[in-house]
Amino acid sequence: MQAVTTIGLDIAKSGFQVHGIDAEGKVLIRRQLKRRHVLAFFQKLPPCLVGIEACATSHHWSRQLNALGHTVRLMPPAYVKPSSSGRRTMPLTPRLSVRRSPGPTCGLSRPRRPSSAKSASCAEAGQSEV
């Protein structure tokens, strides 16, 4: 069996789309997961590259997946959204994440740490961190 090298993960409220490919680009995984099953699914996989569209919860999931040994790349929505418009093509989003995540010039962002997010929100509100 070939090993999954890259996974595109589309984060939603309760159902997540997963699209995994091998080094040759052959699709090995294409499925939907419930939120409660995501970590168990990734624990069973060997460490690989995971592409996620950057949003509010993507930082949380990137920290969780990094703790499991995976490499996570967050991509701006502009790189994922143009090809997926409307409900009809929703499964396209994780496929686009997979195709665009290996590129070095993708405008990737690093996941935030919980402490830096707290400091930034306090600074915006004009409060001191306690």
Q: Your description of this structure?
A:
This protein is α/β, with parallel strands linked by helices. The protein has a single domain (6-125), classed as YqgF/RNase H-like domain (Nucleotidyltransferase, domain 5), CATH 3.30.420.140. Helices cover 32% and strands 23% of the residues. It contains five helices and five strands. The protein has helices at residues 38-44, 58-67, 77-80, 92-100, 114-125; strands spanning 6-10, 15-21, 27-34, 49-53, 71-75. Strands 3-2-1-4-5 form a five-stranded mixed β-sheet, sandwiched between helices. The mean pLDDT is 76.
Short description:
With 130 residues, this protein is α/β, with parallel strands linked by helices.
Brief descriptors of the model:
130 residues; alpha/beta; Nucleotidyltransferase, domain 5; 5 helices; globular
Q: What are the secondary-structure elements, in order, as H or E?
A: EEEHEHEHHH
Helix content: 25-40%
- Strand order of the main beta sheet, please? 3-2-1-4-5
> Architecture, CATH level 2?
2-Layer Sandwich
The top level CATH class name: Alpha Beta
Mean pLDDT reading: 76
Number of helices: 5
* N- and C-termini, Cα separation: 52 Å
Pairing-aware structural class of the strands and helices? alpha/beta
The CATH topology is what?
Nucleotidyltransferase, domain 5
Largest beta-sheet details: 5 strands, mixed
- Outline: globular
Write the CATH homologous superfamily: YqgF/RNase H-like domain
